[in-house]
């Protein structure tokens, strides 16, 4: 673990700008994936609207920087707070009204889309054209002339998110979340405050994702509602933790280290021919292959392979029903008790 | 004049809602039986549209005729997807199902891009521009035909599910898959047929819609989102709900375009969705909660 | 792409010099100069992105066929195509990769957001970036401002495409001239636009120019519609209710199809459809699909100069290589960007970034292939002063330039016959 960290810290000395970019996106999406993982992985409350938090965070800090010259370093916390507020609203409504599983997913999709549509009609935020950030390379403005600094910022974000996830995994909240994920009704019967725990998880997850929005804005230098709030970004966020193994500490990181390079490789080698789109067919097939061959994600699979190696920390709770047993249909899917 | 405008918008939305309903009915069936979130739904629809386009171009078939062939083809596509992929993740957690279907959606979209190219297409129909004027209001003939066909197909599906033995088994499996297994039903075959029929519905919807709306490989995604929206509003697993939900969403968006800024009309659908989720999660027309 | 002929040619030359006893390395091996081109070749903008890529590739082939960069010993250009997948983060990563693979200049990226994501890459890595298409004013303006404030040393981002401001001004100017020439005076205009990063500023530019320059007509209703092609029947009913004389749409291909068909279905009586500048109203596929409905539609777009014999020849070749498509705004400007780059390299005699920037600043390329207001020159902001638009009308199922007069191929038709009374 320490060795890996040292390697990552030393790496920029040896990498060119392009490979740094690849690593930056690996770290950044691992960070967003970890933030999602707190709610979607550990807590089993899948959100397909996390782009809304990225968008709110990004727009908040960028707007403050453009209008009041507030440094995005401060703005990113305000952006995170704004995202946390939205998270609280979604969480309060969703959990108070008992939306579970598929219904909660759609609630998050709907909120993401509502945010996208509203922001694309707010002229102060540039409407559909969005906001454009002047590139100055001023570190106080969260801009760097060298990719190495972005690399360290992204790495820092990823490590912070891992630290938070590790803390939660070992805390009482982590145990509650796991219990809720496995069987919410039973956990409540045992005295777990499911509503409060889930609400805390979504607020924290939204805050972290919102903070990431500032990085997104100041690495891409423009924000459009369609990209910053769109479902494609939400999908991008959830891919990595799921591929890596949701509900595990290393899942989002591993997933990111698998998917981002795969996407780059397929882009580099399959997009060359005359047929545009082949590389995305390859990428899509890889996603399918992951599901078929690592049905619980890559990290749990790897852990299975190295099962005999000593492992630190508590073993994760048993995640799925054994094969062959059909999931009891009405209970997990029922929107709420009548 | 404004009244005529509102009436016109409501009528246009209503007639357009037929295809919305048909695609939502397909999705509702798949979800109801297998509890699988078919994110590739819209992309299957785009394939239906492209088939109709090719049939019109090569054989001169009107989409209002060729939709039968398109439905059959997408039925086969659905069966293959179900057998080869979906069947293996029936008991997997939600996130793995989503991941799988995202992969399928990505493959289908970009396969369409490679095969048919990136251009925006529309299927030519003999009735494409026909209108009938009733005073200040007109009736779009293509929409009217589409609506009629979508209604007929939905009715046929209803009869199949409620009258035929296989249909009854599908409903039984939707109610309780474990129970269906206990009474000795061939659940695997039921799942396969149900997925195929759901796909056929959306394939037919794609063929019909190709005469009304232009499409390109990338349009499938938005249709998936709309389908889910409708299914929830109408009531998950309820065919009648999905059908009426389709009409409701289409009319609401059309009226939204009159009463709000038109570019905000999608907002109406999403706000409606949130309200339904919060206050009537079984959907407007879903009586039971199963 | 190395085809058989160029392969034979180069080996032939190498064999010739070898036979003469000269060391081949000295002269005969032309250096290769790589240019990175990022376009949205997949995703919602795939149609346009693929046209851009083909335009750029053809320009590279043409430059090479004409002997490459002569001042650098006939060095050949190589196009490194990149796909942004219609996503800004991918655009940025792809730009980095292309530079890594040796691109000494960049072009792209159609979508203003993607272009913007590539700007810092160009500035950080000191790789001159000639934007081929992107209309948002801020792209070059931002960099120029940073340089002025001393936060950046050199500007590496330049653009050869009209900005939305230019679009708006030209649209109003041309419309006024057209109305005067045809003795018409439309009173009521309805502006309809797709609410996306292109349509939104484009509509604002038009409204602003209308206010500043004045016109006989009033914009009585502004109707934005969603980016995703949904039903437009209600939007058209709304437009019809405003009793317009002209309709000014800012569309994409899908919405253009819907709009024109609804105008016909709902029997909207207008003098004509005049777009302030938008795709979807001139492409081959659109004309084939819409037939007589798209006939007479006018569009104020950057266009290939029909008076230039060079441009006409390219257009013929483009039709051959694209399966019958029209050499238009997008393919044309991507093509011209490569021509400008070749011209810059020729004068810079090196691939050193600062030499390239100096050469870009000194550009004075006469005979551009696009309709332009004079030779290609870059101003202090980094935009070309020449990039302009033309009024294109579909006549005889073909887009032809009808205004300004010096580039016009045919006489414009206005007012136009009603949709339902056309042959």
Mean pLDDT of chain B: 90
- Structural class of chain B comes to mainly alpha
In total, the number of domains of chain C comes to 2
What would the principal axes of the Cα set say about the shape of chain C?
globular
Approximate strand percentage of chain C: 15-25%
> Briefly, what CATH class of the largest domain in chain C?
Alpha Beta
H and E string of chain C = HHEHEHEHEHEHEHEHEHEHEHHHEE
* Largest sheet features of chain B: 2 strands, antiparallel
Biggest interface goes to:
A-B, 66 and 56 residues
Rg result of chain B: 19 Å
| The named CATH superfamily of the largest domain in chain C | Response regulator
Gross morphology of chain B is globular
What is the percent of helical residues of chain C?
Answer: 40-55%
Major sheet: arrangement of strands of chain B = 1-2
Class derived from helix and strand content of chain C: alpha/beta
CATH topology of the largest domain in chain C: Rossmann fold
Give the SSE layout.
The complex is a heterotrimer of chains A (338), B (290) and C (423).
Chain A: H1 2-10, H2 17-40, H3 51-68, H4 72-96, H5 101-119, E1 131-132, H6 147-170, H7 172-182, H8 184-189, H9 194-220, E2 222-223, H10 225-228, H11 231-244, H12 251-270, H13 278-293, H14 298-305, H15 330-333
Antiparallel strand pairs in A: 1-2
Chain B: H1 2-34, H2 41-59, H3 63-84, H4 94-116, E1 131-134, E2 137-140, H5 141-163, H6 165-175, H7 177-182, H8 187-209, H9 220-234, H10 239-259, H11 265-279
Antiparallel strand pairs in B: 1-2
Helix pairs in contact in B: 1-5, 1-6, 1-8, 1-9, 1-10, 2-3, 2-4, 2-8, 2-9, 3-8, 5-6, 5-8, 6-8, 9-10, 9-11, 10-11
Chain C: H1 4-20, H2 24-27, E1 32-39, H3 46-65, E2 76-83, H4 88-100, E3 103-109, H5 112-125, E4 129-133, H6 138-148, E5 157-159, H7 164-182, E6 188-194, H8 199-213, E7 218-225, H9 233-241, E8 246-250, H10 253-265, E9 272-275, H11 284-290, E10 298-301, H12 309-321, H13 329-348, H14 353-361, E11 390-394, E12 399-403
Parallel strand pairs in C: 1-2, 1-3, 3-4, 4-5, 6-7, 6-8, 8-9, 9-10
Antiparallel strand pairs in C: 10-11, 11-12
Helix pairs in contact in C: 3-13, 4-5, 7-8, 13-14
């Amino acid at each position: 673990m320490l060795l890996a960290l040292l390697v990552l810290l030393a790496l920029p000395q040896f990498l060119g700008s392009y490979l740094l970019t690849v690593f930056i996106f690996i770290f950044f999406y691992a960070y967003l994936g970890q933030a999602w993982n707190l709610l979607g992985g550990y807590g089993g409350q899948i959100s397909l609207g996390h782009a809304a938090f990225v968008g709110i965070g990004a727009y908040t800090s960028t707007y403050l920087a453009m209008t009041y010259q507030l440094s995005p370093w401060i703005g990113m916390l305000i952006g995170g707070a704004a995202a946390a507020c939205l998270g609280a609203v979604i969480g309060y409504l969703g959990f108070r009204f008992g939306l579970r599983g598929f219904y909660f997913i759609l609630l998050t999709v709907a909120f993401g889309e509502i945010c996208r549509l509203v922001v694309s009609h707010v002229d102060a935020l540039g409407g559909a054209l969005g906001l454009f950030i002047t590139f100055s390379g001023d570190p106080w403005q969260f801009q760097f002339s060298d990719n190495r600094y972005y690399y360290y910022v992204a790495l820092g974000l990823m490590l912070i998110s891992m630290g938070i996830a590790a803390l939660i995994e070992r805390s009482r909240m982590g145990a509650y979340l796991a219990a809720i994920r496995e069987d919410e009704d039973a956990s409540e019967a045992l005295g777990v405050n499911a509503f409060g725990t889930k609400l805390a998880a979504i607020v924290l997850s939204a805050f972290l994702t919102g903070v990431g929005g500032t990085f997104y804005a100041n690495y891409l230098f423009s924000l459009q509602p369609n990209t910053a709030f769109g479902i494609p970004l939400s999908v991008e966020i959830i891919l990595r933790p799921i591929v890596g193994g949701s509900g595990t500490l290393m899942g989002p990181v591993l997933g990111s280290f698998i998917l981002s390079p795969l996407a780059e490789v397929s882009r580099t080698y399959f997009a060359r021919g005359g047929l545009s789109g082949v590389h995305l067919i390859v990428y899509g097939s890889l996603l399918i292959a992951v599901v078929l061959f690592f049905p619980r994600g890559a990290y749990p699979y790897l852990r299975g392979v190295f099962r005999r190696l000593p492992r630190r920390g508590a073993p994760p709770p048993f995640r799925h029903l054994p094969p062959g047993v059909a999931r009891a249909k009405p209970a997990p899917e029922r929107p709420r008790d009548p | 004049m404004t009244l005529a405008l509102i009436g016109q918008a409501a009528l246009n939305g209503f007639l357009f809602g037929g295809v919305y309903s048909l695609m939502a009915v397909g999705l509702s069936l798949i979800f109801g039986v297998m509890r699988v979130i078919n994110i590739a739904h819209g992309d299957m629809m785009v394939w239906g549209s492209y088939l109709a386009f090719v049939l019109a171009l090569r054989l001169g078939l009107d989409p209002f005729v060729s939709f039968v062939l398109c439905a059959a083809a997408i039925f086969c596509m659905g069966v293959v997807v179900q057998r080869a992929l979906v069947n293996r993740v029936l008991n997997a957690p939600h996130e793995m199902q989503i991941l799988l279907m995202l992969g399928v959606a990505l493959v289908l979209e970009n396969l369409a891009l490679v095969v048919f190219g990136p251009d925006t297409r529309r299927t030519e129909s003999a009735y494409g521009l026909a209108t009938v004027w009733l005073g200040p209001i007109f009736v779009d003939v293509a929409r009217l035909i589409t609506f009629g066909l979508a209604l007929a197909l939905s009715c046929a599906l209803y009869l199949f599910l409620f009258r035929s033995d296989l249909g009854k088994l599908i409903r039984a499996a939707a109610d309780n898959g474990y129970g269906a297994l206990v009474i000795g039903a061939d659940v695997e075959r039921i799942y396969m047929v149900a997925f195929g029929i759901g796909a056929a519905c959306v394939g037919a919807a794609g063929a019909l819609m190709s005469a009304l709306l232009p499409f390109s490989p990338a349009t499938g995604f938005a249709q998936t989102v709309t389908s889910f929206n409708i299914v929830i509003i109408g009531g998950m697993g309820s065919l009648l709900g999905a059908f009426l939900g389709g009409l409701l969403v289409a009319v609401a968006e059309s009226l939204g375009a009159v009463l709000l800024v038109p570019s905000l009309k999608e907002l109406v659908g999403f706000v409606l969705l949130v309200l339904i989720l919060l206050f009537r999660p079984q959907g407007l027309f879903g009586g039971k909660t199963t | 792409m190395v085809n058989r002929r160029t392969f034979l040619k180069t080996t032939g030359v190498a064999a010739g010099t070898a036979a003469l006893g000269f060391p081949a390395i000295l002269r005969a091996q032309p250096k290769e100069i790589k240019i990175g081109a990022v376009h949205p070749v997949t995703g919602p903008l795939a149609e346009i992105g693929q046209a851009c890529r083909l335009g750029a590739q053809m320009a590279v082939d043409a430059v090479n066929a004409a002997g490459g960069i002569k001042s650098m010993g006939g060095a050949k250009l190589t196009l490194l195509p990149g796909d942004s997948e219609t996503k800004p983060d991918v655009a940025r990563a792809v730009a980095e990769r292309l530079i890594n693979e040796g691109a000494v200049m960049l072009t792209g990226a159609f979508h203003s957001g993607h272009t913007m994501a590539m700007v810092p890459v160009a500035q950080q890595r000191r790789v001159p970036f000639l934007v081929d298409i992107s209309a948002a004013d801020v792209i070059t303006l931002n960099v120029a401002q940073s340089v002025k404030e001393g936060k950046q040393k050199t500007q590496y981002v330049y653009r050869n495409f009209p900005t939305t401001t230019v679009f708006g001004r030209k649209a109003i100017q041309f419309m006024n001239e057209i109305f005067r020439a045809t003795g018409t005076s439309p009173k009521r205009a309805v502006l309809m636009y797709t609410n996306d990063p292109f349509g939104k500023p484009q509509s604002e530019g038009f409204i602003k120019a209308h206010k500043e320059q004045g016109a006989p007509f009033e914009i009585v209703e502004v109707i934005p519609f969603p980016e995703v092609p949904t039903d437009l029947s209600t939007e058209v009913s709304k437009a019809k209710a405003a009793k317009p004389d002209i309709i000014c749409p800012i569309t994409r291909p899908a919405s253009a199809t819907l709009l024109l068909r609804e105008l016909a279905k709902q029997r909207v009586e207008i003098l004509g459809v005049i777009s302030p500048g938008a795709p979807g109203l001139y492409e081959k596929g659109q004309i084939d699909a819409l037939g007589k409905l798209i006939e007479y539609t006018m569009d104020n777009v950057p266009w290939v100069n029909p008076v230039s014999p060079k441009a006409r020849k390219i257009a013929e070749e483009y039709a051959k290589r694209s399966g019958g498509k029209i050499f238009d705004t997008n393919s044309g400007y991507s093509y011209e960007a490569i021509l400008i780059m070749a011209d810059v390299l020729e004068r810079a005699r090196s691939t050193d970034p600062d030499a390239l920037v100096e050469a870009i600043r000194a550009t004075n390329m006469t005979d551009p292939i696009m309709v332009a207001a004079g030779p290609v020159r870059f101003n202090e902001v980094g935009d070309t002063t020449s990039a302009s638009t033309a009024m294109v009308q579909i006549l005889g199922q073909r887009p032809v330039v009808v205004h300004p007069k010096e580039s016009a191929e045919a006489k414009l038709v206005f007012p136009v016959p009603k949709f339902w009374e056309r042959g």
